[in-house]
């Protein structure tokens, strides 16, 4: 099983501090989005990296539509800067439309689960990254451009926890370096989170589904 954790993801509701700002008031969605709210975000601590639901959206599309997920060998978790962990049911099909996806995320963060009745497709719990990682079995690989250069194929193990930053700039906010068994760089440049998600999943598929040498 591969557990995929998008850590310190920049997904959150619009903070109270900027809710009345003119660049925020005109929008219906209550999800912070730097492409819309950048003016107001200048006054937020860490505003240069916050408000990136697109990173979560694209990463989820890549992961949930993968062969690995179809084979039942993938579990995905989104950990956010506010220490919420979103548990994704493997049956979930991610909405392709970005606006509707943000609407769903708003519902999830406000109500704790979607849909509100029946089996939950996504559930949001108040949990730190440490509390999540403690529960997951497998070698914990932290992906970082600052890590030791390694080959994806070699580092993958049958039970593995892949930790990838769900943020655009800067470093992990959670003390994740203490929790990882290994810190690995897969390329000499910084890559977007979804590319690392894709590379990790494809390497795992090649090694444990297609059994390529
Ligand atoms: C856009 S990067 C975040 C940038 C940030 N400066 C950093 O150093 O983590 C998103 C995430 O993708 C992963 N990543 C990006 N480039 C990588 C690389 N060359 N090797 C391994 N992981 C990488 C890391 O998990 C990173 O947190």
Describe the structure.
This protein has one domain (2-12, 51-208): 3-Layer(aba) Sandwich (Alpha/beta knot), CATH 3.40.1280. Helix content is 32%, strand content 23%. It is built from eight helices and eight strands. Strands 4-5-3-2-1-7-6-8 form an eight-stranded mixed β-sheet, with helices on both faces. β6, α7 and β7 (160-165) form a beta-alpha-beta unit. S-adenosylmethionine (SAM) is lined by residues 143-145, 164-165, 167-171, 185-187, 190-193, 196.
Structural domains: how many = 1
Q: Please estimate the helix content.
A: 25-40%
Give the topology string: H per helix, E per strand: EHHHHEEHEEHEHEEH
- What name does CATH use for the topology? Alpha/beta knot
Largest sheet: 8 strands, mixed
Q: What is the CA-CA span between the terminal residues?
A: 19 Å
Bound molecules: S-adenosylmethionine
Tell me the number of strands.
Answer: 8
Which sequence of strands runs across the widest sheet? 4-5-3-2-1-7-6-8
CATH architecture: 3-Layer(aba) Sandwich
CATH class placement: Alpha Beta
Evaluate the radius of gyration: 17 Å
